[in-house]
Write a structure and sequence with these properties.
It is a single chain. The protein is flat and about 80 Å long. Helix 2 packs parallel to helix 5. By secondary structure, the chain is mostly helical. The N and C termini lie far apart (about 55 Å). It has helices at about 20-30, 30-40, 65-75, 80-90, 95-105, 125-135, and strands at about 55, 80, 110. The protein is built from six helices and three strands, in the order ααβαβααβα. This is DUF742 domain-containing protein.
Length: about 140
């Protein structure tokens, strides 16, 4: 296996032109776009979501839904965390919570608490079960 080749850094006046998809990446960082995605937040009320809250779609996207809401509903056919949705849609957490609050209000998605693994059972209980099975 060969190591990756390093690119030589050029002085600023000799920089090559940016790749074609760089404009798309810059557009996602545009605050005006985030305002359009999140909409006017009149009352400021947001759902109590954190990064590990699981989101599940409850309905198909309506025809009048904006593209970001359609993308969320299609991605959430299986449960996804808010952090995963934020990464897939390239939106910051704050814009994602506003978008999800709208979907929760319209009852198009459902928020679930994350599935937490149970702690390991008590060792003495496991030993008692094992000894009981050995006596059989």
């Amino acid at each position: 296996m060969t190591p990756p080749r390093r690119r030589r850094r050029l002085p600023e006046h000799e920089q090559p032109p940016p790749p074609a998809d760089a404009g798309r990446q810059r557009a996602s960082k545009n605050p005006e776009r985030l305002y359009v995605v999140a909409g006017a937040d009149e009352d400021g009320a947001r759902a109590a979501l954190d990064l590990v809250t699981l989101i599940v779609a409850r309905a198909e996207p309506p025809p009048s839904a904006p593209p970001e809401q359609v993308a969320v509903l299609r991605l959430c056919a299986a449960p996804l965390s808010v952090a995963e949705l934020s990464a897939y849609l390239n939106l910051p957490f704050s814009a994602m919570t506003v978008l999800l609050t709208e979907l929760l209000t319209a009852e198009l998605v459902q928020a679930r608490a994350p599935i937490v693994r149970q702690s390991i059972p008590d060792r003495s209980l496991l030993e008692a079960v094992m000894h009981g099975l050995q006596r059989l």
